[in-house]
TrEMBL record, chain A:
GO terms for biological process: CUT catabolic process; exonucleolytic trimming to generate mature 3'-end of 5.8S rRNA from tricistronic rRNA transcript (SSU-rRNA, 5.8S rRNA, LSU-rRNA); nuclear polyadenylation-dependent rRNA catabolic process; poly(A)-dependent snoRNA 3'-end processing; TRAMP-dependent tRNA surveillance pathway; U4 snRNA 3'-end processing. Keywords: Exosome, Nucleus, RNA-binding, rRNA processing. It comes from Clitoria ternatea. This is Exosome complex component RRP4 homolog. One of its GO terms (cellular component) is cytoplasmic exosome (RNase complex). GO terms for molecular function: RNA binding. The keyword Nucleus applies. Coiled coil: none annotated. It comes from the Eukaryota.
UniProtKB/TrEMBL annotation, chain B:
This is Exosome complex component RRP41 homolog. It is found in: Cytoplasm; Nucleus, Nucleolus. Residues 18-148, 151-216 form the Exoribonuclease phosphorolytic domain. Its main location: cytoplasm. GO terms for cellular component: cytoplasmic exosome (RNase complex); nuclear exosome (RNase complex); nucleolus. Pfam families: RNase_PH, RNase_PH_C. InterPro entries: ExoRNase_PH_dom1 (IPR001247), ExoRNase_PH_dom2 (IPR015847), ExoRNase_PH_dom2_sf (IPR036345), PNPase/RNase_PH_dom_sf (IPR027408), Ribosomal_Su5_D2-typ_SF (IPR020568), RNase_PH (IPR050080). Belongs to the RNase PH family. GO terms for biological process: nuclear mRNA surveillance; poly(A)-dependent snoRNA 3'-end processing; rRNA catabolic process; U4 snRNA 3'-end processing.
Length: 325, 241
């Protein structure tokens, strides 16, 4: 069994145990015997034809699981949803990746998949926003867009002969800066309609990447700031003193202390949820951040065992109240 | 030397057909994709699995299947006398190869083309049967990493001393120089994936010893299944809807 590695006092241990038991009792009613391990046979009705999906195999006419997980059935399809595993891309997923290589006309991104993903120069919006054919000059200037070790947000485009391709054809995608990148097991992030969130009360952005990478950063207005640059450039430079430029630049790179604190709070909330193995959604993160704020807790105390136990208890409460409704 | 007393007890108080106590724990290395600790009596092994991930060396790429790599090492403090061993000694290269071949046989490598899977096993305490313990730990770690496998591999050793077949030899029995059979099986498919033997055995006795080892493997498989199922259930209910 995967234990939670935290230094807990005796009472905290008991409380955590209690909260986890409550969670267990809440979920066990839904599907109690759907969990399988490797090479467990899955009972299917052999009169109907069965479609064997991911995580299953045929063994002497029997359907067996090839991974540990939960059996899911959709009409004729039977598949096993693995829990802890690497990310399995689906077309249209929003992912966050790290640039590992700048190659010919493409960037290679590490996205927690079994291969590196490819982001073609031609499948992303140019910073100047103009639609045109990508020239060799653009290719030479690729490092001015993304460099190695940059954190980039993109969408899964699909499989091509040379691997997984991504695209970034909108203003909302692109390089992420001024924030924190967190890594959680991908099964904790559920696919939803909305993966970009703006936490207005804290002035932060939250991006839940389907591949288990989560970005918490300062809120950036949706407007195209590259266009602003052009305006600046077209303005005669002599008019603006160079000092002014520096201060403008600083303002662009400066995040207020308040915002930075909120970023850290949200990041720690995600960390706590990930150590507990709870589902990570906007509401739950908000709940944890609000809990820490209402307790007047220091940011670093959020990673302590006391807060962890408290979050587990709150989550148990929340789920049971959801159940009643 | 007497390995089985007239009362039918072995040096550590077990009966000839008895196994040592086994214990398994999943999730020992936080940064790995999958990890496990496996204990058989005083033998303790830790395994970590990374991958399937991008190939480190592109020239090794196989376009139809995944590359499996394995590294076995023994901690300096694992044996009675503390010895500094060089990393690539003969014994560890051989065991790495054995583990790699055994695991490769059950991993469905064709599902993860153009990637590599790294298995690292380290012996923390050595008291005989490290080979078996390593294979069991590696199986658990691979299952934890969510890597598709056609079956779990479990391994157990058996020997033949004082005209009695003995299950799961410890260090003292192992170093007696008698026959030592290490067996790895796929319990569901009922197939043997690994069979190694030191010294010689008559063919009819080998069958008895092998049967004993198979029983041992099946007992381990049963335990490993319980551990994995419990782990899966835990993860699922904690995650919630």
């Amino acid at each position: 069994m995967r234990g939670i590695q935290l230094p807990l006092s005796q009472t905290q241990k008991v409380r955590l145990q209690k909260a986890l038991e409550k969670l267990e009792s809440l979920s066990s009613k839904v599907n109690s015997n759907a969990s399988v391990t490797i090479s467990d046979s899955i009972s299917v009705n052999h009169e109907d034809s069965v479609l064997k999906g991911h995580g299953t195999a045929d063994l002497n006419g029997e359907v067996v699981a090839t991974v540990c997980g939960i059996v899911e059935r959709v009409n004729k399809l039977v598949y096993v949803r693995a829990l802890r595993s690497r990310y399995k891309p689906e077309v249209g997923d929003i992912v966050i990746g790290l640039v590992v290589e700048v190659a010919q006309k493409r960037w290679r991104l590490e996205i927690n998949y079994s291969q590196n993903a490819v982001l073609m120069l031609s499948s992303m919006n140019m910073p100047d926003g103009v639609q045109r054919r990508r020239t060799s000059v653009d290719e030479l200037n690729m490092r001015s867009i993304f460099e190695e070790q940059d954190v980039v947000c993109a969408e899964v485009r699909g499989f091509q002969h040379d691997g997984l391709h991504l695209q970034a054809r909108s203003q909302k995608y692109g390089k992420l800066h001024r924030g924190q990148l967190l890594s959680v097991p991908p099964y904790l992030v559920k696919r939803q309609k909305q993966h970009f969130h703006h936490l207005e009360e804290y002035g932060t952005d939250l991006i839940l990447g389907c591949n288990g990478l989560i970005w918490v950063g300062e809120h950036i207005e949706g407007k195209d700031d590259m266009v602003d640059d052009q305006v600046n450039e077209s303005a005669p430079e002599a008019v603006l003193p160079s000092k002014n430029y520096v201060s403008l630049d600083q303002e662009k790179n400066y995040t207020t202390l308040e915002t930075r604190k909120y970023i850290c709070r949200a990041a720690n909330a995600v960390r706590v949820l990930s150590t507990l193995g709870f589902n990570i959604t906007l509401e739950i993160i908000k709940g944890v951040v609000d809990l820490s704020l209402s307790m007047n807790l220091d940011i670093h105390d959020m990673l302590g065992s006391e807060f962890c136990v408290l979050v587990a208890e709150k989550e148990a409460e929340r789920r049971s109240s959801n159940k009643k409704r | 030397m007497e390995f089985v007393s007239p009362e039918g007890l072995r040096l550590d108080g077990r009966r000839p057909m008895e196994m040592r106590q086994i214990r398994a724990e999943i999730g020992a290395v936080s940064k790995a994709d999958g990890s496990a600790v496996f204990e058989m009596g005083n033998t303790k092994v830790i395994a970590a699995v990374y991958g399937p991930r991008e190939l480190q060396n592109r020239s090794q790429q196989i376009s139809s299947q995944a590359l499996v790599r394995c590294e076995y090492s023994m901690a300096n403090f694992s044996t009675g006398d503390r010895m500094r061993k060089s990393k690539g000694d003969r014994r560890s290269t051989e065991i790495s190869l054995v583990i790699r071949q055994t695991m490769e046989a059950c991993i469905l490598t064709h599902l993860m083309p153009r990637s590599q899977i790294d298995i690292y096993v380290q012996v923390l305490q050595a008291d005989g049967g490290t080979r078996s313990a390593c294979i069991n730990a590696a199986t658990l770690a691979l299952a934890d990493a969510g890597i598709p496998m056609c079956d779990l591999v479990t391994s157990c050793s058996a020997g033949y001393l004082n005209t009695t077949p003995l299950l799961d030899l410890n260090y003292v029995e192992d170093s007696a120089g008698g026959p030592d059979v290490t067996l790895g099986i796929l319990p569901k498919l009922d197939k043997v994936t690994l069979l190694q033997m030191d010294s010689k055995l008559p063919i009819d006795i080998l069958e008895n010893v092998m049967q004993l080892a198979i029983e041992g493997c099946k007992a381990i498989a049963k335990y490993i299944r319980e551990v994995l199922l419990e782990n899966t259930k835990q993860l699922e209910y904690r995650r919630g809807v």
